Amino acid sequence: MKMKRTSFVCFGAQGSKDALVYQEIPGREGGEEFFLFFSPGKPEQEPILRTLFREAVSASRLGAPVHYFSRFLEQFKALAASAGGEGDVLEGVLLMIEIRRGNDVHILCNRDAVIVHSDGRTGRRDSAESLNGFSEVPLGSAKDQRDLFRRAPEDTFSLYRFMLAEGEHTVILAPSSEFVARHDESLRNSVFFPSFEFPRDAGIDLAVSRSFPAIHWKGGLTEVASAPEERSASGRKRTNVPLVAGGLAGAIAVVILIGSLAMREKSRGPEPAIALLGAADAAKKKSSDSGRAAGPSTSGEREPAETERAGRIDLPEAWKRGFEAPITSSVRYYRGKVYFGCRDGYLYAFTPGGELAWKYRSGGGIGASPCCVNDRVISADYRGNLFCLDANSGKALWSFPTRSKIVSTPESSGDIVFAATTDGRIIAVRLGDGRKLWDRKLGPSIRANLAAGKDFVLAVTTDGTLVRLDRRGTIVWKTNAGAGVASSPACDEERDLVVFGAKDGAVHGGSLSSGARVWKYSADSAVDGSPLCGRDAIFVGSKNGTLYSLSFDGSLRWKRDVGGAVHSKPLIAGAAVFVTTYTAELVALDAASGEPAGEYRASSPIYSSPGTDGKRLYFGSNGGVFHAVRIGAPAAS
User: Fold this and answer.
1) CATH code for the structural domain at 7-263
2) In what order do the strands lie in the sheet with 337-341?
3) How high is the pLDDT of residue 180?
């Protein structure tokens, strides 16, 4: 099987002008792929990098990558000398030159940069050493260049070689390990990268302040004839695309659009378990795989029974509003207002008609969904601030600094508010004044939402450990599913059941009272979406884009392809179940049979779970657009 062409994309602050990018595409099978990315660390470095960039683009490859890299280092020495040799010329710079022939890849980069590799099939994220045959190639620069700058070329640059491995992989070059850790949530959840990229106007962006390159490939290995050892640059067909990151989208979009048009003619393959970067896969939906087999309720009440048929549902747009950052927070409708957080750092309250009621500025981006109780709205931000607002006015009532990033939704039980942090703690504070009651470390990290009842709070850590605590913070029981978990647990106290999905491709059902596993249902891929326990069934989506309806004993009722990865929690309204997808769709299905009932197309991938007031559905998108969609019967013809 042939390897799909390697693809490149550069991400960063929208409209930034800090990157110089160039790409050549092989003109024939076995040709050479060539990619450059230069990003200055400070403004005074830009003239030097522009000169070096022009030289690098115009230089011949001299028949072998190592020859080209040797010539590039000589150019760098000359530029360093002309710059006066004061300080490190590349301090803070992000620089990558990639040359690929067949499956053989060489990368030259500045040594301070960090190469991160994500295996999309296994979900493992690791250093570049996990790549097939990864090794460092000695540069062999002379030590007599130290008079030009603080570090000799062999201390400034690193040259690596590896083979394109079979499967699905993403490699990014980041400024530092601290950069990767700080933007981990954004890298994992802002966009996903199944098979090809979208241009900038798709609304995809990352909440980072630096541009950085990513390389993605997908497919199986193929033997490609070696390229001739001596060949001039003029002897190859080129797609010459030099650009600056302010106009980056236009040039990359040319390459991207060609790939995306070709991909639309092919059937959609499985998406990776975890990907660091990417865009929604807009390939055509798979054929239906539906058949019977032997967001959360906004009011807090049990969902209605699915006794009626949904029929065809019209989903016309009621209104939409644009924002400066992605909206991954799910929506809460509470007492006449619609509440949601945005990564621009605001918590918003809108009327059902689309008028802004108020907005509250927090200390950082908000990915957590709000919790509404007793005329209060409680949420948290990426800087770890847990805060409580008056639901009517938006006035701050109290704030508690957890000192660790929060991405999961706070929960309340009686007079206690529970919050989970990405360093693996649950913190309990008083609802009335935000005073801390207790703090308990449970695992490496908690990213899934909590579940709380009258006398318990339930948390699941990223290593797959499910923990039940009482209101005093005492651990009642804990159990491990044996796989990473991003899915939030759903509880049914009447049935003594807790349900959650895992990256092992299974939906797990356990006893809420004891933690013992009761059943396990194997899905078609990782289950990162959160389950919904309705009155008659459980609904949950998978990474491969299948929505499942399960009985409470774990048996399959029906399954239906919804066209894209599901990272959200389904919602039941009337006789229909609604779910959002990473292919930018809101899909309605008959809750009893799984038959399609309607769909609404958004402008960008959707991570947010929908909310409803009974007349409209509300959800945000990664492109920073908030949507309100009416629920109605088809218009008369």
Assistant:
1) 3.60.40
2) 332-334, 337-341, 346-350, 356-361
3) 76
> CATH 3.60.40 region(s) of the chain?
7-263
Q: Give Cα 368 to chain centroid, integer Å.
A: 14
Residue 26 has pLDDT above 50, yes or no: yes
- DSSP-assigned states of every residue in 603-622: SS---SPPEE-SSEEEEE-T
Which of 295, 235, 346 lies closest to 570, judged by CA? 295
Residue pLDDT, tens place only, 424-447: 999 999 999 999 999 999 988 898
Angle at 406 between CA 271 and CA 205, to 5 degrees: 50
- Tokens 């990474």 sit at which residue? 543
Element (H, E) at 160: strand 157-163
The confidence band for 16, taking pLDDT boundaries of 50, 70 and 90, is: low
pLDDT in tens, 157-183: 889 998 888 877 888 888 887 777 766
Specify the DSSP element, H or E, that contains 633.
none
DSSP state string for 3-71: BPPPEEEEE-STT----EEEEE--SSTT-EEEEEEEE-SSGGGHHHHHHHHHHHHHS--TTSHHHHHHH
Q: Any idea what the Cα angle at residue 220 is, between residues 216 and 224, rounded to 5°?
A: 95
Angle between helices 46-58 and 65-82 (to 10 degrees): 150
**Sheet of strand 32-39, all strands in order from the earlier edge strand to the far edge:** 135-137, 157-163, 104-110, 94-101, 32-39, 20-24, 243-244
Strands (E), 482-531: 490-492, 497-501, 506-511, 517-522
pTM exceeds 0.90 for this model: no
Q: Which of 81-85, 418-422, 580-584 has the lowest mean pLDDT?
A: 81-85
Residue 277 DSSP label: S
Phi-psi region at 311: left, alpha or beta (left = phi > 0; alpha = psi -120 to 50) = left
What pLDDT was estimated at residue 47? 84
Nearest-angstrom CA–CA distance, 111 and 90: 10
Pick the closest to residue 8 from 264, 328, 274, 239 (CA basis).
239
At 622 the pLDDT is 82
List alpha helices for 59-129, DSSP H: 65-82
Token pair 């990864």: residue = 134
Inter-residue contact 214 to 197 (CB < 8 Å): no
Q: Where do you find CATH 2.130.10.10 in the chain? A: 288-330+533-637
The topology (CATH level 3) of 288-330+533-637 is: Methylamine Dehydrogenase; Chain H (2.130.10)
Q: Tally DSSP H helices, then E strands, for the chain.
A: 6, 44
Q: How many Å apart are CA 204 and CA 475, to the nearest integer?
A: 41
Q: Which residues pair with 573 in a beta bridge?
A: 576
User: Which range is most confident: 33-47, 146-160, 293-307, 352-366?
Assistant: 352-366
C-alpha torsion angle, residues 268, 273, 277, 282 (rounded to 10): 20
Confidence of residue 573 (pLDDT cuts 50, 70, 90): very high
Record the tokens describing residue 63, joined without a space. Answer: 């028949």
Number of other residues whose CB lies within 10 A of the CB of residue 291: 12
Question: What's the pLDDT band for 134 if we cut at 50, 70, 90?
Answer: confident
**Amino acid found at 57:** V
Q: H-helix or E-strand containing 390?
A: strand 385-390
Longest Cα–Cα distance in the chain: 83
Whole-angstrom distance, CA of residue 179 vs CA of residue 209: 10
